[in-house]
Amino acid sequence: MVEKNNFPYVPNEYESEKASNSYLLSLIAIMTGFPIPLFNLIAAVIFYFGNKRGTYFVRWHCMQVLIAQAITMIVNSIAVYWAVGVLVWNFTLTNNFISFILTVAIFNIIEFIATIYSAIQTRKGKHISWLIFGPLTDLLVKE
Predict the structure, then answer these.
(1) pLDDT digits over 6-29, tens only?
(2) How many domains is the chain built from?
(3) Domain range spanning residue 21?
(4) pLDDT band for position 143 (50/70/90)?
């Protein structure tokens, strides 16, 4: 995560709260829909479209959350499918499976911590850009 100081303007209280809420919604969706990876993405999409006409600061952070949830959903879906395959369909339990599950667990923990940090900092009006998702968000969201 990187705090960007070159953001075009300082957001007001309302904008900071809205942007922070996109991260909080992501946390709530993770807690309630953890076994169903698609649930988190649907929640992020709904929140993004609800704020699509908001200020640049709000739209930017909603899009960053949406991108993060899309990638997380793909990774978690593969993990869930593979785990069901091992547990139900008698797929072979391999070192590759164990390594992938551990990697997905670490990825999810990092994403969870980054989301909490971003929610707190964004609420303070600071612009937080994630290393992987921030540059992609810059390309997709225009002022």
Answers:
(1) 667 788 899 999 999 999 888 887
(2) 1
(3) 2-140
(4) confident
